[in-house]
Amino acid sequence: PASSPADSPSWEGSSGRPQSGTVTVVVEGEEETLPAVLFEGRGYSIYLPEEEWTRTMEGEGGDVQDVFTAAANDKVMLAVQSSSDPSITFDEVCETLLAEGYLQSDDDDRFFALSADGVVTCQYIVEGEAGTIWYLSWCYPDTPEYLEGWGSRIPQLIETFEAK
């Protein structure tokens, strides 16, 4: 499924991306095209469905840490942060996540998941400019209902993430 901005107004944000558009996601075999808004943080931008997410914490300082909470369910969260340590490599991040018990996806070596204490926590790792490592992490309750809904929806939204 393609997640991309479309039918957007002509004005752009500081990221150079349109402020709104649409994202297309497939959930339980059904394709949905949703109006989306551009969220811009320090050094990144991401499209999230309009009125579906709220930025509940905005990062300050060295490592960017923005947290978004699903409007329909406060147990579903998405966080974006970067590593300010330029010496950390993608491979080292992967090794650390594996040592912490995360499982690495067979389909995408940037995607990791861990289920513990009734919560699924996922990590998606992106290499940005100047060696910056970006961590996109999300969590939701470990139940079939959440796995089929949020568990399949969020990774598709992550495709709209861009680091500056």
Strand neighbour order, sheet with most strands:
4-5-6-10-9-8-7
What's the name of the CATH homologous superfamily? Mog1/PsbP, alpha/beta/alpha sandwich
SSE string, helix = H, strand = E?
Answer: EEEEEEHEEEEHHE
CATH class: Alpha Beta
**How many independent structural domains?**
1
Going by CATH, the architecture would be 3-Layer(aba) Sandwich
Oligomeric description of these chains: single chain
Mean pLDDT: 86
Count of helix runs: 3
Give the helix proportion (percent range). 10-25%
Say what the CATH topology is.
Answer: Protein Transport Mog1p, Chain A
* Extended strand count: 11
Task: Specify the biggest β-sheet.
Answer: 7 strands, antiparallel
Q: How far do the termini sit from each other?
A: 24 Å
Q: Indicate the overall shape.
A: globular
Q: How much of the sequence is in beta strands? A: over 45%
Q: Provide the structure class.
A: mainly beta
Low-pLDDT segments: 1-10
Rg computed from alpha carbons, rounded to a whole number of angstroms: 16 Å
Can you describe what's shown?
With 164 residues, the protein is mostly beta strands. The protein has a single domain, classed as Mog1/PsbP, alpha/beta/alpha sandwich (Protein Transport Mog1p, Chain A, 3-Layer(aba) Sandwich), CATH 3.40.1000.10. The protein is 15% helix and 46% strand. The strands form two sheets. Strands 4-5-6-10-9-8-7 form a seven-stranded antiparallel β-sheet, sandwiched between helices. Strands 1-2-3-11 form a four-stranded antiparallel β-sheet. β8 and β9 (119-127) form a beta hairpin. It is globular, with a radius of gyration of 16 Å.
